[in-house]
């Protein structure tokens, strides 16, 4: 399972392992993306064609390499042209989602292939955008010029002020827990959070969202913008009046509880059908379901989990087991990309954070692979366990809880707290080693080398752990469950 994920993760980065690209290959790349663009203007004729065409272009893209550091740089104007062409291709693909799901794909394989191709094109754009950026530049969320902010020409959108009530903001956070959420389902995604926009009668913009730390909250839009995430995509429902009513309903529902000083708790069980607690995507599901009397079920395609992740998911709080895992599904933020009723309005990226996000994706891909194939399990250890238990108790002590720097919800149990802490610790250790390795070479780490480095690091650290536990980097907290 995770070998397949790794393959699709590698695809876009074999194209641009650094910002330079050989001139005679430039035409080939434009030719491939142009071919995909032409194909995307019309839906494929059959299920077999959907799979074959997606695989064909996958192979074409995968066969291109740009590892030679002597490659000449593409002209910036041509890079921007290629980014726009790729973005328009993804918009075309979205136009046919309804056809694919209704006419071709009862099994879901066609849509999975389409999603993989869409993700590969986005990663391609990421790397090209990163190559144009300057480290000294500061980027503000949902503000900027192309290609940092790409807009759908069929809609009026130039900045966050053009958001409408009922719009969705699909975003990617900067933490390892965000990378885990993005890659936790059978379908890998590039996003970890979903927010609902509400515009009141005075024209003021708010977001309704749910966070692990505080549960469900409403806040002025600028609070969300100031989080300065790595990426964000704006989606708009086909019935804007209903979307506005959904946003208004959830705004009032969440605000009533917040005004009482008791936020609706975060839903660690990811049970989108029970709204007593809410996780981020569930805010959207509950809003649309409630104002449509259950007729609008968002999204159309929901997330299933892999069997091997059941122990991890149980610690997270998800009520999945050996008996129900084939039927258990939830609303993962990235699922909204496959719902044809929502139009993609605009897409924004922070070029300075794309490399960090990409590295975290690679680390989590490998960690989930080890869980799947080598029975790796998180082991918090003595210090993390003591800290978690103490923090959990202090959080419930009235005099002390308001003074704690690190806030976490009262409905988070000790096991969950330990999992989040140990996930961050292991991820940060591996990323530190990747960053050290990065300093030894003059160009960004090619993806194959990145995965090989992480794998070799695991093997070496496991041997160290066997010889002297205290000298290992991360196997004290993440190791095979033997």
Automatic annotation (TrEMBL):
Q: Name one Pfam family in it.
A: Peptidase_C92
Q: Report if keyword Iron-sulfur is assigned.
A: no
Q: Which InterPro entries match?
A: Papain-like_cys_pep_sf, Peptidase_C92
Q: Please give the name of this protein.
A: YiiX/YebB-like N1pC/P60 family cysteine hydrolase
Keyword annotations from UniProtKB, A to Z: Signal
List the SUPFAM superfamilies hit by this protein, alphabetically.
Cysteine proteinases
Leader sequence range is 1-19
Q: From which organism does this entry originate?
A: Winogradskyella aquimaris
């Amino acid at each position: 399972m995770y070998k397949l994920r790794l393959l699709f993760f590698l695809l876009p980065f074999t194209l641009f392992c650094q910002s330079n690209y050989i001139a005679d290959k430039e035409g080939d790349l434009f030719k491939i993306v142009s071919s995909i663009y032409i194909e995307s203007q019309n839906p494929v004729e059959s299920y077999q064609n959907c799979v074959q065409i997606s695989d064909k272009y996958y192979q074409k893209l995968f066969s291109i390499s740009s590892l030679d550091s002597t490659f000449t740089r593409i002209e910036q104007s041509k890079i921007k042209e290629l980014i726009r062409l790729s973005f328009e291709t993804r918009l075309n693909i979205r136009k046919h989602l309804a056809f694919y799901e209704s006419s071709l794909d009862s099994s879901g394989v066609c849509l999975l292939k389409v999603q993989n191709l869409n993700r590969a094109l986005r990663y391609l754009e990421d790397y090209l955008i990163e190559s144009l950026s300057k480290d000294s530049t500061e980027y503000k969320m949902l503000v900027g010029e192309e290609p940092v902010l790409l807009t759908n020409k069929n809609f009026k959108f130039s900045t966050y002020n053009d958001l409408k009530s009922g719009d969705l903001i699909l975003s990617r956070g900067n933490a390892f827990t965000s990378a885990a959420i993005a890659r936790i389902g059978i379908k890998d995604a590039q996003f970890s959070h979903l927010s609902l926009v509400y515009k009141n009668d005075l024209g003021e913009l708010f977001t309704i969202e749910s966070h692990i730390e505080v549960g469900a909250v409403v806040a002025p839009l600028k609070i969300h913008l100031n989080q300065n995430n790595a990426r964000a995509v704006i989606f708009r429902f086909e019935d804007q009046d209903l979307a506005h009513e959904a946003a208004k309903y959830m705004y009032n529902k969440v605000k009533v509880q917040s005004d009482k000083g008791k936020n609706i708790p975060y839903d660690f069980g990811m049970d989108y059908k029970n709204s007593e607690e809410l996780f981020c995507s569930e805010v959207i599901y509950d809003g649309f379901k409630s104002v449509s009397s259950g007729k609008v079920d968002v999204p159309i395609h929901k997330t299933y989990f892999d069997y091997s992740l059941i122990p991890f998911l149980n610690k997270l709080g998800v009520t999945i087991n050996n008996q129900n895992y084939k039927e258990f599904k939830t609303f993962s933020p990235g699922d909204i990309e496959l719902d044809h009723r929502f139009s993609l309005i605009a897409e924004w990226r922070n070029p300075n954070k794309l490399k960090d996000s990409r590295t975290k994706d690679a680390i989590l891909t490998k960690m989930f692979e080890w869980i799947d194939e080598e029975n790796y399990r998180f082991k918090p250890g003595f210090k993390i366990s003591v800290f978690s238990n103490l923090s959990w108790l202090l959080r419930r002590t009235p005099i002390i809880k308001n003074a704690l720097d690190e806030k976490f919800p009262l409905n988070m149990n000790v096991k969950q707290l330990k999992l989040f802490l140990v996930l961050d610790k292991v991820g940060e250790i591996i990323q530190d080693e990747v960053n050290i390795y990065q300093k030894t070479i003059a160009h960004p780490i090619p993806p194959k080398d990145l995965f090989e480095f992480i794998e070799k690091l695991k093997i070496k650290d496991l041997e160290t752990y066997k010889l002297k536990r205290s000298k290992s980097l991360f196997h004290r907290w993440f190791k095979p469950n033997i």
